Amino acid sequence: MPVNLQLQAQAVDENREVFYIPNFVTEEEEGYLIHQGHSSTKLERACKSKIWGGQLTGKNVLLSQPLPPFVEVHPNIVNRLQSTGVFRASTHGAPNHIIVNEVEFLFWQGIMPHQDGPAYHPVVATISLGTHTAFHYYKYTTGNQGQNATEPTCEDVARIIDPTPVMSVLLEPRSVVITSGSLYTSRLHGIGNQIVDHFTAGTDDLHPPKFADLDVTVANWRLLGGRDAKDAVINGGLLERGIRYSLTCRDVEKWDPEWVQCH
């Protein structure tokens, strides 16, 4: 995937399929986006969500609507994502669809492992706001792994998910994680429902810091931008979660131009 040189330095994995950028938005922009997320449309359900950019049909065609002006003006997150180069090969060259989620970890909410599906160009940029979280990538198993195996989502009823992540990253507030390549097309991603994340200390590649509950490396530990997160991860501390807002930005490649013109 073609990306700019600056983004290459933010690669999490050797294959350069996952990129992590801390402080992608400022604290002022974070507060503004959270406010806009609350005020523009009512969030619904326990894991509250809404959509900017239009609805998908059952045939994965977007009934397109304009994105809210603030994501293209201030803060212009669409342009920032476009400038990384990750959407260069997509139909529109930039995200045209954003899902806003609100998860309150105080109520033991998480997001089950899932795949984003074929409607989108195989790149997703996830902006985290409000609090940190742990973001895990999973693979399907080739057989029954026993009681610890994770139940598949409804669209994958014939497949079992290996409960041990193939890679895990710590998402700080105001950061963005970009997923592409095989980690988008053949892996799943999800967020556990922990209220507190505990870490096992580590300071080098031979003994890297880990998420203590899963005994898996914090893959982006060298890229963390915040002092509190770095200290907790490297020295084996903990981080308490709060209410997390996320903007999941993707390019839906098929859309109905006649529907756009009529609405």
Automatic annotation (TrEMBL):
Domain of life: Eukaryota
Family: Belongs to the alkB family.
GO molecular function: dioxygenase activity; metal ion binding
Gene Ontology CC terms: nucleus
Cited Gene3D superfamilies: Alpha-ketoglutarate-dependent dioxygenase AlkB-like
Ranges that cross the membrane: none
SUPFAM superfamilies with a match to the protein in the record: Clavaminate synthase-like (SSF51197)
Higher taxonomy: Eukaryota, Fungi, Dikarya, Basidiomycota, Agaricomycotina
Cross-referenced InterPro entries: AlkB-like_sf, ALKBH6
Full protein name: Alkbh6 protein
The entry's keywords: Dioxygenase, Iron, Metal-binding, Oxidoreductase
PANTHER family linked to this entry: ALPHA-KETOGLUTARATE-DEPENDENT DIOXYGENASE ALKB HOMOLOG 6
